[in-house]
Structure formats: C-alpha cells, structure tokens
Write a structure and sequence with these properties.
The protein has 119 residues and is an alpha+beta fold. The protein has one domain: Alpha-Beta Plaits (2-Layer Sandwich), CATH 3.30.70. Helix content is 49%, strand content 24%. It contains four helices and four strands; from the N terminus they run ααβαββαβ. The protein has a four-stranded antiparallel beta sheet with strand order 2-3-1-4, covered by helices on one side.
Length: 119
C-alpha cells in the first residue's frame, strides 16, 4: 500500500514540476503564485472573471508614458505609479492572455498580484 501511495504522490510532484516549468517558459515574468491562484479560481467558478490587484515592475529608466500606454491599451485604465517610476499598480479582471502580453514586453521585469474578488 505504501508503494502505491508513494508512486501516486510522485506523479503529483512530477505533474506539478511540469506545470511550474511551463509557467516559467510561457509566462516567465509572472509570479507563479498569481498564476496558480488565477487558475484555481477559474476552475472553481469558470463563469466569473476574477479581479486582482496587481503590480507591474518595469526596468529602471523606462519612460513612464510608455508603461502607462501599455497598461491603458491592455486594461483601459491608468495605473498608480510609485515615485521611482518602476512600480505600476492597477486593479482589474485578469486573463492568461493579459498576463502573457505583459510578460512578453522586454521592459517588464515582473508581475505580482493578489485576488480582490469577483467582478
């Protein structure tokens, strides 16, 4: 019995490692915890778009207007910008496609976020 349990838990670990590797490959700049939380909520209630408070960290020296334009074009909202011009915050519904578009920009360093509630 113990061997079956060990084999089953090993499969779970392998699948989870594959998932994490896929996330790093496809969404390298997105916090894995944000991806996991988003997917978990999508599985629970697929007809509700989850709303997140998230922050986009940009590289230093970036023209803040470029980042504002990116966020405006993707989300239709202007972000709150920190004093150094590298941290942009917004609250919005998310999709994996939106996260992919953010991750694809070379001037984006990372994206983190936390669940706020349903739309």
């Amino acid at each position: 019995m113990t061997d079956q349990v060990d084999a089953a838990t090993r499969v779970v670990r392998i699948k989870y490692d594959e998932f994490r590797k896929s996330c790093k490959t496809i969404l390298p700049k997105i916090d894995p915890k944000l991806i996991e939380d988003f997917l978990s909520r999508q599985q629970e209630v697929s007809d509700i778009e989850p709303r997140y408070s998230f922050e986009v960290i940009a590289r230093e020296g970036l023209d803040t207007q470029k980042m504002q334009d990116l966020i405006w074009n993707n989300f239709g909202e202007l972000p709150v910008i920190d004093y150094s011009g590298t941290d942009y915050r917004i609250e919005h519904t998310l999709t994996l496609g939106m996260l992919k578009r953010l991750s694809d920009h070379d001037f984006v360093v990372s994206v983190k976020g936390s669940y706020v509630g349903p739309t």
